[in-house]
Inverse folding.
């Protein structure tokens, strides 16, 4: 039995490999969005340094923890797959969508969003599209039949 698990671990399905890379792209997009937000804040307010430093520190710890969980998912740990599903697929996706949804519910239009675009908002918007599409793709790949078999066999 132990030999079979070792064999399966060596043969990680393409779906899991791709999911792994899409999760890393999503985290990288989150880091990029943080850099854009910090750059924009610092350009507007030079006295916000310590609060920004704390926020960046916390987010960096969170990003590192997520990468740890992503690696565990890649190695076949089902708890990591479930954690990614809940944390990034559920809560993370909600946090990516809530601001644009609220903005639209306040009566704003897409025309207004495009006419008021700056370099920061353009980069941030593109990153959010990459971020969200990476999360959705990673989620789908993590639950494909070959991935399900892999997670059951490694468990």
């Amino acid at each position: 039995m132990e030999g079979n698990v070792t064999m399966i671990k060596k043969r990680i399905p393409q779906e899991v490999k791709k999911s792994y890379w899409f999760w890393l792209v999503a985290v990288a997009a989150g880091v990029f969005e943080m850099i854009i937000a910090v750059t924009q804040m610092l350009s507007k307010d030079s006295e916000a340094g310590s609060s920004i430093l704390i926020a960046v520190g916390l987010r960096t710890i969170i990003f590192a923890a997520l990468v740890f969980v992503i690696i565990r998912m890649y190695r076949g740990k089902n708890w990591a797959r479930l954690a990614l599903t809940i944390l990034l697929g559920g809560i993370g996706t909600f946090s990516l969508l809530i601001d644009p949804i609220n903005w639209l519910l306040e009566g704003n239009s897409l025309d207004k969003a495009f006419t008021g675009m700056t370099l920061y908002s353009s980069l941030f918007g593109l990153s959010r599209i990459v971020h969200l599409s990476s999360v959705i793709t990673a989620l789908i790949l993590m639950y494909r039949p070959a991935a399900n078999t892999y997670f059951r066999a490694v468990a």
Remarks:
- Residues 14-44 form the longest helix (31 residues).
- Helices lie at 2-10, 14-44, 49-74, 78-105, 110-115, 119-142, 145-154.
- The CA atoms of residues 103 and 109 lie 8 Å apart.
